[in-house]
Amino acid sequence: MSVQNETRRLTAPDIHARKGGEPLVCLTSYHAHTARIVDAYCDVILVGDSLGMVMHGFETTVPVTLDMMILQGLAVMRGSKRALVVVDLPFGSYEASKEQAFMSAARIMKETGCGAIKIEGGRRMAETIAFLAERGVPVMGHVGLTPQAINTIGSFRAQGRDESDWAPIEADARAVADAGAFAVVLEAIAEPLGRRITAQVAIPTIGIGASAACDGQVLVLEDMLGLSPRVPKFVKRFGDLGPSIEQAVKDYAKEVRARTFPSADNVYPMRKAGGQAAVTKLPERGKGPSRT
Ligand code: KIV
Predict the structure, then answer these.
(1) pLDDT given at position 3
(2) Which of 22, 59, 111, 187 does the annotation list as catalytic?
(3) What is the pLDDT of residue 147?
(4) For ligand 1, atom 1: residue with the closest CA
(5) For 207, which of 113, 140, 224, 270 is 20 to 30 Å away at the CA?
(6) Exposed, middle or buried, 213 (CB in 10 Å: 0-12/13-18/19+)?
(7) Of all protein residues, whose CA lies closest to atom 2 belonging to ligand 1?
(8) Among 49, 87, 234, residue to substitute to test ligand 1 (most atoms within 8 Å of Cβ)
(9) Rounded Cα distance, 189 and 208, in Å
(10) Ligand 1 centroid distance, CA of 99 (Å)
(11) pLDDT score at 286
């Protein structure tokens, strides 16, 4: 007997088939609760290595490990049921050889159950992408600004703002597409270049700081929710959760100190003989001893 989920998850070929169609909606998520929310509206959930900066407070994505990606990838798979979940291969887990990339990708796919992986790099990764794609690993490419290369590029600067810089970025996107990637992220590139690459390649382009003409868009969830203290220009804050979280924490601290939380609603009364709950007598609000 086969065990099938009622909801069919989108696959890499489904996403590939959306080239030129209705825009693909993608967001990052790193844990089960946010994955559940995002899953209802997104085609792709990216477990990006930006989790190193967002969840762990690293300055760059360089310190992120394969184990970190697997742990959060598992959480996102548990929280979602419809979107294609794509997990990033972190720095150091795929660049040494195509065999190393395959072993890392296979570990992520076996241990999380995700449907695809993403790797950064254009022409230099083409051989690896082909090797993976031929062996059952759907690959999302990532060109333009590649944050894992921060120590060689020097800063998180937008790419291709002078037309003279376009050729290598276009060549990277074409190489990734020709190698068999099912989609490619275009990060932080000049708008006309994003538009031009989208017209040139046969796979969906997913823009982040690229162009509205891309076949889809992705953002880091915490950035668009207003939770990240510093965000790049390409981020639009669709929400401002910071102040409401702060207010909730402030209210909680006040109630704990005043002993008004937990109230009778939040504690377990004793059972009365005969099965009925006894009413617990609690101290009056604000009458408890003060902290100081
Ligand atoms: O790690 C990440 O979140 C990403 C997106 C910014 C595309 O790679």
Answers:
(1) 60
(2) 187
(3) 96
(4) 48
(5) 113
(6) middle
(7) 48
(8) 49
(9) 9
(10) 24
(11) 44
pLDDT, residue 288, reads 44
The confidence score (pLDDT) of residue 275 equals 60
Report, as ranges of residue numbers, the positions in the chain whose pLDDT lies below 70. 1-5, 275-292
pLDDT of amino acid 6:
73
Indicate the length of the chain as a whole number: 292
Q: Ligand 1 pocket: which residues have CB below 6 Å?
A: 28, 46, 48-50, 88, 185, 187, 208, 218, 220
Q: What is the pLDDT of residue 273?
A: 83
What's the confidence (pLDDT) of residue 276?
58
pTM to 2 decimal places = 0.91
Token pair for residue 32? 């089960």
124 closest CA partner among 109, 107, 146: 146
Whether 255 sits among the annotated catalytic residues: the reply is no
Atom in ligand 1 nearest the alpha carbon of residue 61: 1
